[in-house]
Amino acid sequence: MLSDALDMRVFEELLHQQGRDKMHQLRDEDLASDPVNQTKKLFARLGLDVHPNVLSFLRQQMSGFSSKMGKQHNSASNASTVRDSWKTRLPRNAIREIEKNCGDVLLKLDYELMFHSVNSAEQHNLAQIPPPPIFAK
């Protein structure tokens, strides 16, 4: 938990030092749920062209047949199921404890909390922190 807050502080410090044009944050679940568009954004951010083979590979991974599974496996359609599976797999008291201890970091990363409400002073403090570049509108 402490390392998450520390990671956020380090990221924010680097963002301030280097500038938004030098930093890019990509959440794993965003990449998993929309690999083609997220890859295009990442390549564009790096100033690179996306080779057609990269897009072809991503599309195959999203909708191709998985020989190991012996059936069709669509990564894109399963991404949201996998992404949200913790909501039913973790006990509610564990989720409450995580939100209690990590809620500020989760909110900074634009995650919705299920249980823990942040008080108005915390919300004001969080509002003063600019969002990571991936979430900047």
UniProtKB/TrEMBL annotation:
SUPFAM superfamilies registered for this protein in UniProt: P-loop containing nucleoside triphosphate hydrolases
GO molecular function, a single term: N-acetylglucosamine 6-O-sulfotransferase activity
GO biological process, alphabetically ordered: N-acetylglucosamine metabolic process; sulfur compound metabolic process
Name recorded for this polypeptide: Uncharacterized protein
Source organism of the structure: Rhipicephalus microplus
